[in-house]
Design goal:
The protein is built from 9 helices and 23 strands. The protein is an alpha+beta fold.
């Protein structure tokens, strides 16, 4: 096996014997190869794959395509029927929920159990236990049996273990879909750092997260290797095939009528003409704004510290609930501890996978007449915008204060999760966010 390869797969096959009746297993044992009482199900057929060290590879495919089977063989929990599989390095995996945990053991006991299975000695686990417990952040539940845990707590503890076992290859199979926004962001920061030097195998039905994280993608279809190549190219082909199959399904034909379906003209250019209609329906984009979290993941804060982050309406009232399309103001207050010649305050809005959706900062507004801030003063930055429609899920608002210019600056304080925005309804037709459209028309000639 080449020294720069983390995983090498050649002609890999996995076959299961499917018995229609329980007693057929006994009959098969008694008759041997003389007669078959089973049907063969080939979960994987002739798979070839190379994963280099430091490479991130995604695996996509519909349910039942063989993704989890391939991962379990790479992790060593399944044996191939035939073919060659070589793994170079320690593999840490997040597969099905709670895998590797004993439900009767406490969280502490399961940390020692799981870490020992990855090859760590008791002394090494002792050294890392505090860091594991801090990463999981489940408090007193660490001493309770894991059978009492919620699905989110399972994932917290499992990911905390795999993040501290010095793995060379990390395998993630849809496990982060059950975590809360704060923890998911923490995991994504770890994964992106991990990917800089080590190998990641990532399985997800979310093509946008695959494209964001992965260098290459393996597309499996009914156990067969359909395509392997650059992430964007393969994901596009996969979606084309998926939606092409759906488009072939019959639909109820409706008689065509010559008309133009067009709503009234918007009152202002920035108001989507569908806003009133959407807000009066079940598709209204209700966005819950959770608390300001200054004690969550952050760095800096000695020379300047963000002391308040709030969303307000056009009258300045704090908002705990926003409807997509409404005008809002993001206000960021910074306490200044030393003289700042060219302060910059900015924000990003990111989805649960850490992908930046939109954001801005104050630099360009004051680049020609910099606004200085003396020690002991207070900076207040306000960003006025119309809240886009957000697909259902959790989003975080990152806030930072820096000094310098757009391209050359030093970060003074950065909050990874200053606010959490939870979208409860999904009005977005396509993509991650929706933007106001001045007009939509449909005509038949």
């Amino acid at each position: 096996m080449c020294s720069d390869l983390a995983v090498r797969v050649r002609g890999l096959n996995k076959c299961y014997h499917v018995y229609d009746k329980p007693h057929h297993r006994l009959l098969q044992m008694l008759t041997g190869k003389g007669r078959r009482f089973f049907r063969e199900f080939w979960a994987l057929k002739d798979i070839d794959l190379d994963i280099r060290k430091g490479e991130t590879v995604g695996i996509i495919g519909c349910n039942g395509s063989g993704k989890s089977t391939l991962l379990q063989m790479i992790c060593g929990t399944l044996t191939p029927t035939s073919g060659e599989l070589q793994v170079n390095g320690r593999v840490a995996a997040l597969l099905e929920l709670g895998a590797g945990f004993n439900p009767e053991f406490s969280g502490r006991e399961n940390v020692y159990l799981a870490a020992s299975l990855y090859g760590l000695s008791p002394a090494q686990i002792d050294e890392r236990f505090h860091a594991i417990a801090e990463f999981a952040d489940i408090g007193e539940f660490l001493e309770q049996p894991v059978k009492t845990y919620s699905s989110g707590m399972y994932v917290r503890l499992a990911f905390a273990v795999v993040a501290h076992v010095d793995a060379d290859i990390l395998v993630v199979d849809e496990a982060l879909s059950v975590g809360d926004a704060f923890f998911t962001q923490k995991c994504m920061r770890f994964i992106r750092t991990f990917c800089q030097t080590k190998s990641l195998i990532f399985v997800s039905h979310d093509s946008s997260s695959i494209i964001s994280l992965c260098d290459r993608v393996l597309w499996l279809d009914r156990g067969e290797q359909r395509q392997t190549g650059p992430a964007k190219e393969v994901c596009e082909q996969y979606l084309n095939a998926l939606f092409g199959a759906l488009s072939e399904q019959p639909v109820d034909a409706q008689p065509q009528r010559k008309h133009i379906a067009r709503l009234g003209q918007p009152e202002l250019v920035w108001k989507d003409q569908r806003t009133d209609l959407v807000n009066a329906s079940a598709f209204r984009n209700d966005l819950q704004v959770l608390r300001f979290a200054p004690d969550e993941a952050a760095f800096g804060g000695e020379q300047a510290r963000v002391s308040s982050v709030v969303l307000t309406d056009s009258q300045g009232a704090n908002l705990a609930w926003v409807v997509g399309g409404e005008q809002v103001t993001l206000s960021v207050v910074v306490d200044v501890a030393c003289d700042l010649a060219r302060p910059i305050v900015g924000f990003f809005v990111k989805d649960r996978l850490g992908q930046t959706l939109f954001g801005d900062n104050t630099y360009f507004s004051y680049q020609h007449q910099p606004l200085s801030a003396p020690a002991g003063s207070q900076l207040t930055a306000r960003f006025e915008f119309y809240m886009p429609w957000l697909a259902k899920g959790d989003y975080v608002v990152q806030v930072a204060v820096a000094e310098g210019s757009q391209h050359e600056h030093r970060q003074l304080h950065w909050l990874h999760e200053a606010l959490v925005i939870r979208s409860h309804h999904d009005p977005v037709a396509t993509g991650i966010i929706g933007i106001p459209l001045s007009a939509i028309s449909l005509s038949v000639a």
